[in-house]
Amino acid sequence: MSLEQLKQFSTCEIADALLKLGQRPWGGYIPDIEMWSPTYCEGDTRIVGPAFTVKMVHKEDKTSPTPTEHFADAAESGSIIVISAPSDVKNAVWGGLMSARAKAKGARGVVIDGRVRDLNEHRQMLFPVFAKSHSTLPQNAFVRPSEIQVPITLSAATVNPGDIIVADLDGVICIPKDMVEQVIINCEKYVAIDDQCMKALQAGHSVKETFAKYRGQ
Length: 217
Known about the structure:
Its cofactor is Mg(2+). One of its GO terms (molecular function) is oxaloacetate decarboxylase activity. Helices cover 31% and strands 27% of the residues. Helix 2 crosses helix 6 (180-202). The model has no long low-confidence stretch (mean pLDDT 95). By secondary structure, it is of the alpha/beta class. The chain folds into two domains: 3-177, Glucose Oxidase, domain 1 (3-Layer(bba) Sandwich), CATH 3.50.30.40; 185-215. It has seven helices and eleven strands.
C-alpha cells in the first residue's frame, strides 16, 4: 500500500484509526502544531512522507554532537523534515532560506516543535510549514542543530526517522512505519461508515438511531 493511498485520509481519520489499533494515549497526534504556510490554518494542503528528523539544542551546549552536514542539505527527497527544539526558547528554528533549500531538495514540507519566521517567503514558495508559533528571532543566535536522523520527542510524541508524517489543516500525526498498511485498511472501513452516518444525519435521522445502525453503538 502506498503513501498516495494514505493521503486521501485526513489527520482526524488517521488518528481515529491509530486509536482503534491501540496507539495510546493520543493516537499519533503531535499536539499544538498548526499550519502556517502556504496559508494559516485554511485550505486543503495535506503532506504525507517519511520523517527526516532534526534535533536542536541550546547554542551554549558544547557536549552534544554536531552534524557534519547542514540538515537542510541532508534532507531527502520526498521526506518531511521534523524538528525538535528546546521548549524554553523564543526564536525561530526555520526561515525562508531553509524552505528554499528544502524545496529544491524535494522535501514535502517541515514540521517544527517550535517557531518559524519569514512567513511571507514560505507562502510565496507555497512550501508547507507546520509549527507551534512564529518569531522574528533567528535560529543561530540561540540554538544549533545537534543530530539528524535520530529519534526525537515533540511534546508528548516520539518520532523516529522514517515514521510516516501526515499534516493538514487539523494538525499533525505520526504513524509508526510498520503500521501504515493497517491504518489504510482501518481508515477505508470506518470512513465508509462515517460517510453513511453523514448522509443519514443530513437526511434528518437522529444521532442515536444513526450510530446504532451504522456504528453499532
